[in-house]
Structures are given as C-alpha cells and as structure tokens.
Automatic annotation (TrEMBL):
The family this protein is said to belong to: Belongs to the zinc-containing alcohol dehydrogenase family.
Annotated protein name in UniProt: alcohol dehydrogenase (NADP(+))
Domain of life, per lineage: Bacteria
Cofactor(s) this protein requires: Zn(2+)
Amino acid sequence: MSTTVTALIAPSAGAGFERSTIERRDVGEHDVAIDIKFAGICHSDIHQAREEWGTAIFPMVPGHEIAGIVTEVGSAVTKHKVGDRVGIGCMVNSCGECENCLAGEEQFCLKGNVQTYNAREYSGEETYGGYSKSIVARENFVLSIPEGIELDEAAPLLCAGITTYSPLKHWGAGPGKKVAIVGMGGLGHMAVKIAHALGAEVTVLSQSLSKEEDGKKFGADHYYATADGSAFKALRGTFDLIINTVSADIPVDAYLGTLKLNGSLVFVGAPEKPQSFASFSLIGARRSLAGSNIGGIRETQEMLDFCAEHHIGAEIETLDASDPSAIDKAYDRVVKSDVRYRFVIDAATI
C-alpha cells in the first residue's frame, strides 16, 4: 500500500520543475510520517537535478534539508510522537551493522547509506526528497528539532549545519584556535556562526568584501578578499584549520600556505573538477589536506541541540513554489551566488 503525495519533480536532467505526484509508503512499525513544512535548497540539489555528478535517477524529487511535524508513528516507534517538530537530512537508512554504523558514523556506512533522494532503498525502491508535501522515514533517521529554532531556519541545518559542524568539531575548533572559512554562501555562513559559537577566532576568506558586513555580524573576527592574491601573502602561516565550503576550483597551494604547523585544509564543498597541489605545500609544515561528509545521526542531533542553545539558525529567503518555475529561478540564483544565504521552500505552496 502507499499514499499519493504532491511533489515538485525534475522530469529529466536540467528540465524545469513540474508539479506532479509521487507515492509514499504506508507507515511501518518503525516508521514516522512527517508533514513537511519547509525544505531547503542545497547546491547539491542543483548538481544532481542537472546530472552534474554522474548518472542520476529521474524523475527526481530533490531535497535533503527537511523540517516538519510528525503526523503518524509506527507501532514500535519510541523516539518520536505525533506533533513533534522533526527533521530529515541527507540520508534515510544505513545497514546499521558495519563498524562505521555502530560507531554512529552512518554517513560512512560500508554498505553505502541510502540517500534521501536520487537513490534507492536496499529493496530497490527509489527515494524522493523534501520538495513534497510529506515523507515517511525510519525513526532512527528522523531528528528532533528543539524549541528555540524556527522550522524554516532549522531546515538548512540538516545539511549545511551538520556539514560544517562536523569538521569544526572533528578538527578541534574552539578557544585558542584560528579558523578560516573559505566562502560565505549557504555553507560558509553556517560555518562562521558555528565556529564563532565554538569559541574560535574566525576569519572569512572570500573573493570580495561584498559580504563583509554580514560576515562580521555572523561572528567573523576578520574578513579578507582573496581575488588579487595579496591576502595569501599577508596570512601566511596563520591558521590552525581552514574549512573550504565552495564548489569551485581554488588555488590549493595558496590556501595551504596560510596554515600553521600541523594545520589542516578540509574540503566540504565539492568542485566538479579534480583539484591539484604540490606535495611540498604539505611537507613543509606537516600540513594535512582532508575532506568531510555531513555527520552521523548522533552528531546531527548534537548539532541541532548546539544551535538551539546558541540561537543559531540559517539566514533564509523563503520561496513560494505555487509556480514551479520559482525553483528553476532559485537554482540559477544559487549558481550565481545571488542568495543570502539559503533558499527554503514553503511546502504549503507545493
């Protein structure tokens, strides 16, 4: 059995969005049904809907920044109840048995976690994301959204928030640490807020100074424009940690040069093309080049609780999706970096 749900669908790679319907499974004993209130637009939605990351599954319903209200729970559900404020992020299942899952790192499931959309359940059933009226998911992959964060501002935390929180925590951002954030977009503005709340000294490295006022408001102590290259010379040997949030090519060696001894440059943005660097940029100061991928369910809940405690939400622009072409226009604006700082779809308009 299943339930028919209204959704915004990308029928093929690069095609305009259309309003249509999809089927959601009935609530099983370990499932939670959620009335979606808001769904954030992530740059990865654009990459996948435009098939820029390899072969995709169409028709596609993107969206892995989902916030809503529980409307039904299965007979064996213990973590959530009807009326709860909840969210779903980038994954809706994992094997639950491998060493990474058992360690709370489901994003690195050795069997491969099941992504919220553009993926298939282990049964072969296609997954559809948050650009829709409702969703059914396993209770273990449903997060509690604490009071103190509005649902619309909470939605982007389910990807942008955890994508930046996880590496900041893993690499020890905190008092006495100098942290640089490359880019001030959807990911970058969250990284600035979280790094500041963790107690680090925060610097934004952006192509221009156009967002400097915002950066300082979000908690940045310093803000540098990198377009002319002079900032790299001025900042040589400065940072303990750099979080690169952009999805464009960067001069990796120049950024590595701004790290201290034992410093790390961590990619969370995903450029389409391979990046290159000189090994001596690492060898010269025992630096590290690394990457990070969202976070496990336990850490995602920790992030949400942290953001509620520190009154951190995403800066958003809410979209009326009654005309599906609004999503196409929003995608084009994201590509042009013309949003401050995250689009969120009002699911009531779908």
